C-alpha cells in the first residue's frame, strides 16, 4: 500500500514536471516566434526598400560596390520571404510544420544564402583593398572582377550547400524542433569533416580576409595623408591645421566603419561558429535552447548587416530619401563634409597624391 502510494506520488511528480517543461518550452517558442516575426517584417522592409531603389535606378546600381550590396540585400530578402515564415509559423505551432522535405528545403536555402552573404561581404573588402592599396580599379563601374567575385560566391555557396544533400552531413531539425539546419550531433568522421570545412572556409577565412584588407586600407589612407601634411607643414600652418582636421575626420570615420563591419560579422556568425566548434570537439550535446540561439542571432543579423554599409553611404541614403520622401525626418540633414567610407576608392587616394605633387612643385618654385 505504501509502495503504491509512493509510485502514484512519483507519477504525479513526473507528470507535473513534464507539464512545466512543456509550458516553458511553449513560452520560449512563442517568444522566438514573435522575435522572428518582427525580424521578418524589418528585413522585408529594409532590404525591399533598398532593392527597389537599386532596380528602379539602374544608372545608380551600375557600380561595383552597389552590385555587391544589391546581391547581399537580395539574399536577405530571399531568406526573409521564403524561409523565415516557415520558422515563424512553426514556432507559434510549437513544432516543425513542413515535414522532412520542407526541412531539407529550408536548411538548403538558409545555408546557401548565408554562405553567399558571408563570401560577398568579405569580397567587398578585397575589392576595396585592390582599389585603394594597389590602385587597380580606377573606375566605379562593374568590371570583370566584380562579376567573377559574385559568380564565384554563388557557385561556392551552392557547392557547399549541396553537400548535405548528397550525404556529406545532412539537414535535420535543430534546437527547439521548430527550425532546420546542419546535423551538429552526428559523430561520424564524414559528417564532422563537413563542419570543419565549413568553419574554416565560411568563417575563419572571411574574417581573416576582412581584417587584413580593411587594415591595409586604413594604413594606406593614413600614410597618404601624412605625406600630404608633411608638404603642407612647409607651406602654410593654417592650411596644415585645416588638412589635419579633415584627416582626423577621415581616419576616425574609416576606423569606426571598419569596427562596425568586422564587429557585425563576428556578432552575427560567432555564436554559430562556437556551436560548431563545440560539436566538433565535444561528444556532449548542447541543450536545445542553446543551439537555437545562434540560429536566431544570424537571422536577426541579416536585417542589419546591409544597413551598416548603407548607413555610411551618403549617396545611397540620398537616393533612398529621394525615392521615399516619407522616410525623411526633420533631423535627417545630410552634412556636405560627410565622407562615404564604404566607397573608399582610388579617387580619394589619387587626389591626395596629386595634391602632394602639386604642393611639392609649388614649394620648389618658391
TrEMBL record:
Keywords noted in UniProt: G-protein coupled receptor, Membrane, Receptor, Transducer, Transmembrane, Transmembrane helix
Record InterPro entries: GPCR_opsins, GPCR_Rhodpsn, GPCR_Rhodpsn_7TM
Membrane topology of this protein: Multi-pass membrane protein
Cellular compartments per GO CC: membrane
One Pfam family per UniProt: 7tm_1
Domain G-protein coupled receptors family 1 profile: 46-309
Superkingdom of this protein's organism: Eukaryota
Coiled coil segments of this chain: none
One GO MF term attached to the UniProt entry: G protein-coupled receptor activity
Record-linked Gene3D superfamilies: Rhodopsin 7-helix transmembrane proteins
Protein's cellular compartments: Membrane
Chain ranges passing through the membrane: 27-55, 67-98, 104-124, 145-166, 194-215, 253-281, 293-310
Record protein name field: G-protein coupled receptors family 1 profile domain-containing protein
Species of provenance: Mytilus edulis
